[in-house]
Amino acid sequence: SIPLGYFGGIGRSSMQGILVKGANYLDVLASVTSVAFDKTGTLTEGVFKVNDIVPNEGVSKERLLEFAAAAEFHSTHPIATSIVDIYTAQGKPVAESLISEHTVRSGMGVDVTYDGHTVLVGNNALMKKYGIEFENEDYDGTIAHIAIDGKYAGYIVIGDSIRTDARQAVSALKNLGVNEVVMLTGDNEKVATAVSKSLGLDGFHAGLLPEDKVDLFDKLTRGSEQSGKVAFVGDGINDAPVIARADVGIAMGALGSDAAVETADVVLMVDSPLKVAEAISIAKQTRRIVW
Ligand code: ADP
Ligand code: MG
């Protein structure tokens, strides 16, 4: 039978907007020594702003944005939303009827047919996958490259903000005895470095595809001390497999996908990484009462 104290722990958690899906996860939470966070939407707001539009030679800014917005029109990724929004803000609706094919490349971008042209919008990995050549500059931000009919057409620089309580969340975890707080992201090295420095993380891995995140997480789990448990915190966009795999998989908030909420062991009803520390704290207190 389950000791009564566990029900108290689950009840206390739920009052704080932390849904723990079983008494066993309180035990796991209390033993967490490593926490891996997904970046976009978890440590950051997951709301992007377009900062710059840089067409390649022979392409106009207007055409670049029109094609990018059309390609992103059916995508739900926050990067897509930011590009579609800045285009429609100019008073021009996306010509939906001209979009004939739409393929999402998870963790990379999109592949779309628009007005008879093949349009790719995404990161380095997407360009590489399709053999698109371009000069890799020293970009400052998250980059959406655009290729039209197999030729590089330019890029859009977008930015996301770090959540205001993310830094506090990292130090709270440290104070609870978590000795390793890291970040996994599909975004580029430069953005990852900036976020990691700003939050005082112990490490990060950038440029990861969804399947790379799973592999890296497994390595992290094998490397952690024998008794220590490893938590993964994500928003469910491109990271649901890792949430499923973790000793304790934590899905964050309102943006979290249905799949993530279903596979997660713990669901945070509030979009705050600080809730992870709170969950561990309640779990540790519960264990003290139960034992
Ligand atoms: P994170 O790993 O930081 O949580 P995501 O998994 O959501 O981020 O996305 C990883 C990367 O994939 C993004 O940084 C971006 O470069 C690229 N990407 C994903 N979807 C799109 C899209 N619709 N348009 C452009 N780029 C995208
Ligand atoms: Mg993500």
TrEMBL record:
Q: What does the similarity note say?
A: Belongs to the cation transport ATPase (P-type) (TC 3.A.3) family. Type IB subfamily.
> Where found in the cell?
Cell membrane
Q: What is this protein called?
A: P-type Zn(2+) transporter
